[in-house]
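User: Modeling request: complex.
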Amino acid sequence: MTSDRPRKLAQTVVSLCVLAALAGVAVGLFIKQSRFDSGRPEHAAAAAMSFEHLLPDALMPMSPPERFTPATLWKKIDGAAEFYIDAGLAELSCQRFALAASPADWLELYVYDMAEWEGALAVFTPREGATAVDLTDRAYESGGSLFFVHGRYYVEVRAAQPTEQLAEAGMALARNFVAETRIVTAGRLDPAKLFPQSGLVPDSIRFKKSNVFGLAELDNVWLADYEIDGVKARAFISCRDSAEDGERVFAAYLDFLGQFGAERAWELLHRTGVTDRELSGNYYYIFYSGRFVGGVHECPDQKTAHQLAYELHDHVGSLQE
Amino acid sequence: MRIVTARRISQVFFLVLFVWLCVVATPGERWFQQRGWPINWLLQLNPLPAVGVGLAAGAITAGLLWALVTVVMTVILGRAFCGWVCPLGTINQAVGYMGKRGKALPAKLRANEYRKAQSLKYVILAVLIGLTAVTLQTGLLDPISLVHRSVQLVVLPAVDEMGHWIWPATRYNTASLVVGSVFGGAVLANLIVPRFFCRFLCPLGALLGVLGRFAIWRVGRSGAECTNCGLCRANCEGACDPPGQIRTAECVLCMNCVDKCPRGVMTYQTRRSLGGEIAGPDISRRGVLLSLASGIAAGPVIRLAGKISTNWHPSVIRPPGSLAEADFLNRCIKCGQCMRVCPTNVLQPAGLAGGLEGLWTPVLNNRIGTSGCQLNCVACGQACPTGAIRPISLDEKLGLGEFAERGPIRLGTAFVDRGRCLPWAMNTPCIVCEENCPVSPKAIICREVFQGVRGGVLPVAASGADHVMLGAAMPAEGAWATGDYYVMPLGAGADQRRRILEQTADTIRIGPAKPWTQPPAPGSRIEVRVRLQRPYVDPARCIGCGTCEHECPVSGRRAIRVTAENETRSGDHSLLL
Amino acid sequence: MSDPAVNNVEVSTRREFLGRCVKAGVTVAAAGGLGAYLVGRTGLAGGAEQVTLADYSVPAAGRRMAVVTGDNRADMVERGLAMMGGLEQFIAAGDRVVIKVNAAFASPPELCATANPDLVAKVAAMCLRCGARQVVVTDNPINDPVSCFELSGIGPAARRAGAKLVLPKADLFRPTTVAGGRLLRDWPVLHGPLDGADKLIGITPVKDHRRSGASMTMKNWYGLLGGRRNKFHQDIHNAIKELAMMVRPTMVILDGTVTMMRNGPTGGSPDDLEATRTMILSTDQVAADAYGAALLGRTPAELPFIAKAAAAGAGSADYQDLLSPPEELN
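Assistant: Request completed. Predicted assembly structure:
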């Protein structure tokens, strides 16, 4: 048929166009399959704290975030690891940030997750020459670096160079951390309320997690220093899980002193729960009251120790009403 | 090159592509794994989900815009998608061809004659569109969803059973028989009438038939020299009566008529067919309105069963990132992609538990697969083409980083069945659930209890600092020496309790490291107790991942089971304040 | 040579072709436009507009309380209102008044688990006599609403008095968030009958409550909550506190004529009841509850929600300065 050839040509042209389209699809697919983001979820970073959302404009990341467990902590902070592990460290997350304006200036953020609020307090040790800053109720600044407690976190923002911009950026980072990080505040015993005020040496309330005074049973203890009429005394209070546990610790403490040969100094007075020991010229008072165990440890002056011990006992008793 | 050759190449191309995209839908980077392959491309090219989701949800995901390509192609060329692209169409045509082969011309003419029943698919489409007022059910009959669901969840797993090339273990599917039968039925029906599904049931074909009304090019008769040889009709895939009044909406552009006509009467042209044309679907306006109205009415009727409100089924545990149920059902096209990519095989097609609407939508079945919902995985959300499961990040799933305030996504809550749990009901130590709980801190805590054992009160015949000889029958040697059993003088306090180190037919030995302060006196009695750790679920921490249920050794009805209470996606189902 | 017949066919074909092109183009454009519009919308269901409950108190009337003893509720409430300065102090002509009753259970009035119908009828009638344009009686009961209003007698009583009974239909609920609240956030509340109302009076009996200790005027507002409100039992005292923060009524009437002393809030037996013969009216719901506690033999200290509500500023538990000696009516 005379119309055949143009028709056959038309069919061929259309067919080839279709094949070309298919070839284009194939090429497009081939390219698409080679482009993918190897989305290895950064498990380590995902499990550790992510700091991206905390950065103020002045700072940019300088190194990837790192995460250390108690087993690997020594790789980052060497011998100081013991101190944190004893206090109950869960993990350390850290990252370096540089100033966007001058990248040679950098700081490093250390976030110690101490698992428990008391643990964070246990490692918070203000050093000589530190000035308190208005960040959290336990925060100080020293040499351009910040050290503070926020809930169960103990945080250090250590500046590598003591410049003002770096200090400002570090403070902004710290404020963002405090604002963005959720902490549990309910049910927290305020240690400041634990101790009677008169004679209390300011800022001396501190927490020791374990092995207080060398006694294994004495753990999770708040310590405070007193100065009464020129005599120094150390008071301690521990909040136990139950009254039975309080009694147990009380007995263990007495046993402990007894092993060294301490003897009762005075007769046990009417006030239940308070008793005393004397050893080598030092006086030890101990009591238990409800869930609390407390006392005065190793005070050379009996009158002071006696007075302080009963004040502590009464104070703790009034807390429980 | 003949046009039908191009058509066949195109069909094979897309069928092979479809099978390949199914095979590679395994997360990974190797050549046979997903890499960057757009595994949802064919679902996205399909306009039916785009239209369905757009109507039901009032919003579509960006990927569904690929459907515009098909719409444009259909509006200009006609149902080219059906004849050149659709994998189910290709399968149907191939099986239909095999069924027709060797038959005489009259039989072929009968096979491919137009049947009034072909208007059923327009009724189906109208009902489905009417239903979008309340719920999206296009996935039930959408050919691309159907073929994905069938191949991904039934065919591939069945084939893989023979050699375990894709999965190392059996890939289960609780709806295998139903889904497989529907697919098998659709495929085998082509032996009765070629392209059975395409002609009678396919709502996508119906939609494209409607869209192709104003096609610029269409198949039709150009010259007047038709001798009525019937060769065109005998090979017509769409059963659209090419030389007569061609039904354009039924024509799938197979071009067999153009190819087979010995006189070149049939062409693909811009002019109307010389034999006349019925451009639109064979359904009256009244039929359309009636079908539409039925669909619109059916929606609220379905919802009266209360399956997404007060009568919701607690076993409907949806994948992480799923929208709340009403929104979810407005988007799920039952394609099975999420179930395909799930690495643990925990996602299964629902039966009727979630109501009629939930058929073949994904739910978790924690007994199946390798572990509940894997903690560090968000594959299902990445695979969902319509956003019924949101593409969440790992941070959002686990409640980390910027999502720390909100907390993790919960799928449900685990409940301990104390009547079945080994330490609760059977005096047997276990705590596999607590050990496997993947969140930190764990959502399962244990409380220690020392429980008396059967035949555990025994008279003492003789005793020493680290042992006691009993004057009564004891269980088989070592039965109490597993490290979980303790012995104490009957009635004594916990301080007298000692772990049993060895136990023979007549003697129980405790460790030398901690002897009794006072060995039990001969003539007195001792008691043996088993140390049990009893699991408690902490609902504030439990994310309902189902790992505990999966690991529970009570393998029939598990002693710890997840139900959908407290799932984060539904405020109504929350458990705690 | 051009054949006119063929030409005509070609012309009409061309016209048809153009027509098809135009229609095809329009379809494509519409599809594209629709696609662009639909992408990027969230298309998620829900999200009704939040409401805040209005302040229905009448500051000009001051903080008042009246206590009346006796046996006849209608007479007692009439006397009590007079002691409060007269109902006219509170209800102005043309006001739309809502009486939020306790109709929680489908329980007959003799069992005193619900507000007494005679009391409700009397108060409704008095409001209408003051010139109120409309008096609405409503509650979102625990049991089936229709049964509750009928069996408790409140429904028929309301209708007898000329008030309108509003049942808690689904479309009458709107989400609300209590400012300063932790629990009542984005929670459905029976806002429909309150919308456009001028005054709100709460009427409820004094009842023991196994979970909260007592169910009195503050707990009465629980019946305005929708949704799965049973969750709030997990933190019941704070929930009641937030209810008191949420609702600032014109007045509350705490009916202790017969008190459910035990097995509350459902009771179920006359043995649970005691005729304490006291009715308390007050503009301060905290004060009313503080006084009402005594009828149950409890001190306010034993009911933590009282101190919490007072601390939240919903009222004051100090009622001594408000009272003249209770008047006896026999």
